[in-house]
Amino acid sequence: MDSQRNILLIALLFVSFLLFQQWNMDNSPQTPTQGVEQQVNNSGDVPSHTGDGQPITDQSTSNNLITINTDVLALTVDTLGGDVIEAKLLAYDNELDSADPFVLLKNTPDYKFTAQSGLIGVNGIDTTAGRAQLSVDADSFTLADGQDELRVPMTYEKDGISYTKTFVLKRGSYAVDVEYTIDNQTDAAASVQMYAQLKQNLVDAGGNLAMPTYHGGAYSADDTKYKKYSFDDMQDKNLNLTINDQGWAAMMQHYFVSAWIPRNAGATNLYTRTGNGLGYIGIRMPTSTVAPGSEQTLTSTLWVGPKLQDQMEATAANLNLTVDYGWLWFIASPLHSLLSFIQSIVVNWGVAIMVLTFIVRGAMYPLTKAQYTSMAKMRMLQPKLQAMRERLGDDRQRMSQEMMELYKKEKVNPLGGCLPILLQMPIFIALYWSLMESVELRHTPFFGWIHDLSAQDPYFVLPILMGVTMFLIQKMSPSTVTDPMQQKIMTFMPVMFTFFFLWFPSGLVLYWLVSNIVTLIQQTLIYRSLEKKGLHSK
């Protein structure tokens, strides 16, 4: 198999991979329910019921809003229930070169994505009459210079019991602890249950053939480290799991994720449901009993931010897996770590991609050399193979036997030119996902006209250069292809690939372009070496 056929093989494998990824997102199999089944109420914003089994009243947001600001987050919280109805990520712009920060959580007439939490149960403050109107000392809170932690308490009194909902934010962190302290100074025990959920409009899974990104739910449970649960899955069947050890419920959208994580809760119900055009995924912690004259604090953590693997891993087990590298994660994850390390030295992410390409292709040089050597030997045998075909005619069995004897005699592996490509393909796919999932590349410039490595080249310069280098690789690679149809396919392959790459992220096109340049350099060196050995013949 010559290099032109190898290029065709890469194209077919890569396009097939993209089609499979898109199909897999659009037709993901339904996840079976596990654990103890629990009743999930399909009406209202609160996922359960009061002590007498009546559903909680669904209420819209109030006009009593407060803001909480740190160096990386700007939250808007509704004092009716204490829900986070808006979250701005201050270190990430909404659009390229925009002065406005990216808004992950929002509550508008057209789109709702909010993080809700509260207390239900016999002594809960979310009841059939409505949710609690919490009291707070100010309408704005800011993490001051030199301050590492900001605590924002909101209080409520009911039947002699004091409830304090406290938001705890830390400098540089996208993890927000939400604490409920129940101070029971009555003569009877108090029974409460904390819940936390994400509510969002039902939307499409997102992405396209070139960038098949995911927009939907995900979770982690005792026996499932990471699993997507799309809005279609939610509409087909409610998810009901009991997590005893560690887990979380999340909603994802390419570079960003929001998740609720229970803390020291024990058996916690993880659920989904849909209604009124909205999808819900959340956690319901076990019922807690607060003895008379005592207090107890229940805690959950809200992650609301970018997919920063180190921070997410420190926040909750397996939360970093929302950076979804697919089934080749064991290759993609080290590649991302290497890319990040290189960037820490060269500073520019585009330059880091180029350096990474040289490292990857350099490591695969023995395979590349074996590939071209095998191709050269196969070309040298073409006259003998042609004579064999003319002599044996249609006797395929004898033809096959004599071909194997010839290969053995000449020490030629007929798959030698194909195997290196098959081994290289997983590395390319892994690097593709590594670049696709790296929030670090979002709105990150390279140089000149490339202002965003996660977006397509606005002037299509990189794809065109990539096509030119593909054409040069073809010209440098002698071919044994004689079939006119195959020759036409090979001739138009650079054009087809160029057209296909017009919509790819410029970071990935940059990788392919540099990889082609390295291939041209390696081809030149290898062919010169083969010519000295008398193997390279056109």
Write the layout of secondary structure elements.
Layout: H1 3-26, E1 65-69, E2 73-78, E3 83-93, E4 101-107, E5 112-120, E6 140-142, E7 149-158, E8 161-170, E9 175-184, E10 190-201, E11 215-221, E12 224-229, H2 231-236, E13 240-243, E14 248-253, E15 256-263, E16 268-275, E17 278-284, E18 288-290, E19 294-306, H3 309-315, H4 329-346, H5 349-363, H6 365-380, H7 382-392, H8 396-410, H9 419-436, H10 461-476, H11 484-501, H12 506-533
Parallel strand pairs: 1-6
Antiparallel strand pairs: 1-2, 2-3, 3-4, 4-5, 5-10, 7-8, 8-9, 9-19, 10-17, 10-18, 11-12, 11-14, 13-16, 14-15, 15-19, 16-17
How would you describe this structure to a colleague?
- This protein is of the alpha+beta class and 538 residues long.
- Helices cover 36% and strands 27% of the residues.
- It contains twelve helices and 19 strands.
- It has helices spanning 3-26, 231-236, 309-315, 329-346, 349-363, 365-380, 382-392, 396-410, 419-436, 461-476, 484-501, 506-533, and strands spanning 65-69, 73-78, 83-93, 101-107, 112-120, 140-142, 149-158, 161-170, 175-184, 190-201, 215-221, 224-229, 240-243, 248-253, 256-263, 268-275, 278-284, 288-290, 294-306.
- Strands 1, 2, 3, 4, 5, 6, 10, 13, 16, 17 and 18 form an eleven-stranded mixed sheet that branches.
- A hairpin with a 2-residue loop joins strand 11 and strand 12.
- Helix 4 crosses helix 5.
- The protein is elongated.
- The two termini are 15 Å apart.
- Residues 1-8, 19-44 and 48-56 have low confidence and may be disordered.
